[in-house]
């Protein structure tokens, strides 16, 4: 097989152009070891692995390009001193973790001053008054935090019952519609269904070598058709037509099909057996 360098389509041996994109194919030669068909620019045989360049044509190696990294000094930026504000963002930067309820933190607010009563000179008749020590009043008082509000219990009418699980939908399996290929004889408007159980369908007239699967001997102008004229090959969903050495040739859309090449059929293609467009078929898919 010859692989197309444009679309990677495998083509039969001896083909001169790609049957899919019509790109000219590279030249081929035979392996001197096993005789298999290989491309002229191949390095090894795909069948036996023989080194095709050892036959006399030296293999030229492409010089590798070495990339040299320039010796450029790397500049290291100077160290930056840490920001004092970042230290405050560290956990427990103020040392407040160790404070408990037994040792509350001392408030930073100043104490409220209380005026002391005036001093009265003591006499012999009046007994001495006891001295009262002024107590500072701390203005920082803890404000009680209100308890969190509890949500009111929902009534029975507001309680939404859980949604029932949706039933699993059973998807019916769809069957693939089988594609049927057929030929329509243009001159008589006769429909010919292609056999679905054959991978190679022979077109021609009765003979002793290869009996035809599609016998055209009953059609008008059948004398221009060879007994072994053309084949239709089925590969998956693709259909290919090729001339197998007929006398008057095979034409696809009024263009000659070279021997050894094959054409991928598409709906509406016109297949003419022989010259003059006297035995013509239209390819269709149903």
Describe the model.
The chain has 286 residues and is mostly beta strands. It is 2% helix and 20% strand. The chain is built from 1 helix and 15 strands, in the order E-E-E-E-H-E-E-E-E-E-E-E-E-E-E-E. Strands 6-5-15-14-11-12 form a 6-stranded antiparallel sheet, with no helix packed on it. Strands 8-7-9-10-13 form a 5-stranded mixed sheet, with no helix packed on it. Strands 1-2 form a two-stranded antiparallel ribbon. The two termini are 31 Å apart. Mean pLDDT is 73; it is low at 57-66 and 167-176.
Q: Which strands sit side by side, in order, in the main sheet? A: 6-5-15-14-11-12
Tally of individual helices? 1
Low-pLDDT residue intervals, each spanning 5 or more residues: 57-66, 167-176
SSE series: EEEEHEEEEEEEEEEE
Per DSSP, what share of the residues sits in E-state strands of 2 or more residues?
Answer: 15-25%
Q: What general outline do the C-alpha atoms trace?
A: elongated
Gyration radius, in Å: 50 Å
The amount of helix comes to under 10%
Integer average pLDDT = 73
Largest sheet, described in full?
6 strands, antiparallel
What is the terminal-to-terminal distance? 31 Å
- Structural class, by secondary structure, is mainly beta
Q: How many beta-strand runs?
A: 15
Concise description?
The chain has 286 residues and is mainly beta. It has 1 helix and 15 strands, in the order ββββαβββββββββββ.
């Amino acid at each position: 097989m010859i692989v197309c360098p444009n679309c990677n389509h495998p083509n039969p041996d001896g083909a001169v152009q790609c049957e899919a994109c019509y790109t000219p194919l590279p030249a081929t030669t035979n392996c001197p070891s096993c005789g298999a068909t290989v491309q002229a620019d191949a390095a090894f045989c795909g069948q036996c692995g023989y080194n095709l360049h050892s036959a006399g044509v030296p293999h030229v190696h492409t010089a590798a390009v070495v990339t040299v990294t320039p010796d450029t000094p790397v500049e290291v930026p100077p160290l930056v001193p840490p920001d004092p504000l970042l230290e405050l963002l560290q956990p427990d930067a103020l040392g407040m973790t160790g404070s408990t309820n037994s040792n509350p933190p001392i408030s930073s607010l100043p104490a409220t001053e209380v005026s002391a009563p005036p001093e009265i000179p003591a006499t012999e008749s009046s007994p001495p008054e006891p001295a009262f020590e002024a107590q500072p009043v701390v203005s920082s008082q803890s404000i009680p935090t209100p308890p969190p509000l509890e949500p009111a219990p929902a009534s029975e009418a507001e309680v939404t019952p859980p949604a029932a699980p949706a039933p699993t939908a059973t998807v019916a399996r769809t069957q693939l519609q089988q594609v049927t290929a057929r030929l329509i004889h243009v001159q008589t408007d006769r429909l010919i269904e292609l056999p679905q159980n054959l991978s190679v369908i022979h077109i021609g007239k009765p003979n002793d070598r290869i009996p035809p699967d599609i016998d055209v001997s009953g059609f008008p102008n059948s004398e221009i058709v060879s007994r072994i004229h053309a084949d239709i090959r089925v590969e998956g969903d693709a259909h290919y037509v090729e001339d197998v050495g007929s006398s008057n040739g095979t034409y696809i859309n009024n263009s000659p099909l070279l021997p050894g090449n094959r054409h991928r059929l598409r709906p509406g293609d016109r297949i003419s057996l022989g010259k003059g467009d006297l035995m013509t078929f239209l390819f269709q898919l149903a």
